[in-house]
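Appendix C. Worked example: E3 ubiquitin-protein ligase RGLG2 isoform X1
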Amino acid sequence: MGGASSRDVYKCTRRSPSFRSRVCDSRMALVRSRYSRITDKYKNLKEVTEALQQVGLESSNLIVGIDFSKSNKWTGKYSFNGCCLHDIGATWNPYEQAISIIGQTLPPFDEDNLIPCFGFGDASTHDHDVFSFYPDERPCNGFPEALSRYREIVPHVQFSGPTSFAPMIEMAMNIVAQSGGQYHILLIIADGQVTGSENSESGQLSYQEQKTVEAIVEASKFPLSIILVGVGDGPWDMMKKFDDYIPERSFDNFQFVNFMEIMSKDEPQSKKESDFALAALMEIPSQYTATLSLGILGSSAAISPRRTPLHPPNGSYAAAFYGPDTFRSTSFQQSVLHVSRDNSIRASAPREASVVSRNRICSVCSMNLKDMVFDCGHQTCYNCGSNLQACPICSRNVAKRIRLI
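Step 2, the predicted output written as structure tokens:
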């Protein structure tokens, strides 16, 4: 009979682990290739919700991150009647609108209705940290509480910068890891792009852009989808082609949605809200399927960054912990040198970016001319530089500041 000899079995046994490994590696490569670029394929919100049910997404967990960078003060010039995008009034601002619309769509898939909410880009977090909406780090109980708590926090926030999504993405990875690998959706709502490089024409990424790219790549090892919602005037050119700057990931986990572009259309409000929800959730069914195929759903193999959120800047509590003096060197006045230069480029007053070269504009506020240089050689405007402990470009601690006057 043609049975295998013990020697043949021995050979097969010895080679099987390696063979299985090669097969597994080949299969995973095919899966990664399949989900490396997820395309938009649904025509309406009903198709998306049906697809979510078909792929087995019966429940998910939501995480919300809100951008409190200084540019929120002026990026509503055209899209929000010249008001700050965080302006709290009788009508909802763009942040509240975006939260509300998503909140009407996703609750059926959010099992416990508990939503961890965070802020970033303010004077306490800059581009290094995030703050929790509550001092005890507890999540908000549904979107109504998230909106209510947001309105309580806004009056006490000191807008700042630079802008980086890395801390928020890393915080989300930490939450996913602590949940034992449950599927999560991170909703980031921001008014602008990640703070860019002074050498953007050469294709060089800034420190903030590089950290954000690295965080997105690392996040693809977790069952985590990232939706970035852009509110305000923009510009959004970098975000639209951001995928081009991201190296190979386990799966395409990042989706950008231009909120104002959709909501400014001359269409009924209900149609615009439906279109926005569709754009935001378009890739979720495929992304969830990718986490299943890659075996990362329910897995605790990936190591998450260790992040602890700061306390919220809430009223007198914030003044005690996050007042302006917290970020100003105690020897600030002694460490500043004043150097005269041509008054024609004096940076004490804002000027239109269209008149001044981008390289002369402060990368933190994107408004004032640079008139302060740090000991590392990088520059910001006086208003931003006087409150920074670390250089926003290279992250070196600031030991000396020189005021250009």
